[in-house]
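Teaching assistant's notes for section 4

Start the section by putting this record on the projector. Ask students to predict, before seeing the second block, whether Enterochelin esterase-like enzyme will look compact or extended. Collect guesses on the board.
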Amino acid sequence: MTDSRYLKRTIVKEVIESKYLNEQRTLRVYLPPGYNELLSYPVVYCQDGEQFFNFGRIATTANQLIMDEGIEPFIIVGVDVDLEVRTSEYAPFGSRFDAYTSCFAEEIIPFIEQKYPVRPDRILAGDSLGGCVSLHLALKNPHLFTKIISLSGAYYDLSREIIAKETDLSWLSIFMIVGLQETAFESGSKVYNFVEINRTTRSLLEERGASVYYEEKDGQHTWGFWQKELPSALAYFLE
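Reveal the predicted structure now:
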């Protein structure tokens, strides 16, 4: 049973106007226990914001890490996505990919950094295609992002081709985990072996000098698996 202390969470909803996406985008901002505007905090940016908070229970996990594990207090920003256009925004072959990644780097980051006392110690987190777009955001903006949490990243052919063209990724640190039961994941009309996809991506990253923490564990391509792995993923960068 979850300790009731962990359930007392402060989550602020923000809405930004994006000129790149030509629409509004909702952000969910978790503020840690004892939040003080005079202090400064590391920040974790999550793709699939609503899912990270509702299914990943990331705010509850953050409270537990801060209250009981001695982790330095940190802020979380969840960026919501319309699931109907998720692939077009998160996949590098998507029609909204350039607009979304520009919105993230040039609109969301400045908005948060002007309104909240966050340090330029940024972590990007994502599941499946969310892990993919997080890595691409870092590749496109290495001056902004150097730390990635990738939960069963969906690094399809084009993503791996883009990574293969990189020559020096020694600035990048990535936490990768994939479930051993993710060998036949159906998406649309295709079936993907996420274990092989992540193994190949790991090799590509390491060959180019990236610092890679990599694990394969029993698990499916679901939030039931990813939720259990979030504490160790967050602690990896925040300890």
